[in-house]
Amino acid sequence: MFNEKELRIGSLVFNKDKRVCSVTHVQLDGNSISVSISCRPPGHMVENISAIPLTEEILLKANFKKEYNTKLPNEASYDKDGIVLNQNFQLSTYNGGVSIIGKRIEYVHQLQNLYITLSGDELGLQAEDF
Predict the structure, then answer these.
(1) What is the domain partition of the chain in residue ranges?
(2) Mean predicted confidence (pLDDT) in 8-22
């Protein structure tokens, strides 16, 4: 289950038929949320959508570069514009011998939110990329 309050306009989600759609409208009303999506059947109920799990394939489609740590060659990381996720998809930085690891990014919409927050730009993934 994902936190629907993380959704914003432009977030990519699955509709009930598992088609990738873009969120076009989000409305919070107290503790309830309604969402409109770009594909058919249109959804207004959060129960009709689900989060897209983040995968290596999606990171590569989003132009993250897969790199290997020279000190730990079995450990991969993914970098785009200085935003680095480790092989477990956790925000990560390396500061002179200390590795700082953050929350695991589980879903595409979380990656979209993280990227725009840190870079100021959209991630660049579209529903048509899937």
Answers:
(1) 4-51, 56-129
(2) 92
